[in-house]
Amino acid sequence: MKINIRKCNLVDLQKLQEIGYETFNDTFKDQNSPKNMKIYLESAFNFKQLEKELLNPSSKYYFIYLNDEKAGYLKVNENDAQTEAMGKEALEIERIYIRKKFQKLGLGTILLNKAIDIAETSNKREIWLGVWEKNENAINFYHKLGFVQNGSHSFYMGDEEQIDLIMTKTIK
Question: Which position among 40, 62, 97, 142 bears the catalytic label?
Fold first, then answer.
């Protein structure tokens, strides 16, 4: 099993959009209305938005490959790119998604460890993320890896307000 992680750049824009749509839709389509999914996907994964994020030095995307096939991706934010004001000593994992056929192979843990490595290299003291309160699999996954809930915030899926649990892990 050959695993490779590669940082994304502007050349990856279309591939990033495709995997973003696919993985987000696969993860949340059964719990949300088609209308709200469409609104969110068109807002979060349009070319202009992704280009803006790829050009922001405080946001980074990474693809993970298994045997040369794109299996998922990671997005991390620091400084002002974080979706919550968590300070300069924190790194946010905004997105960590694995395509369905590659789930349960440990790739999510590998991406999470990549985020921790990025945080340590950048001298961050903690890593944090928001996870939908109804996504029990993800909540359990993060608990097992040492994250603790210490807050919540609103997340809008189209016109529906949802609650994300804020989970953090101290790394230094």
Answer: 142
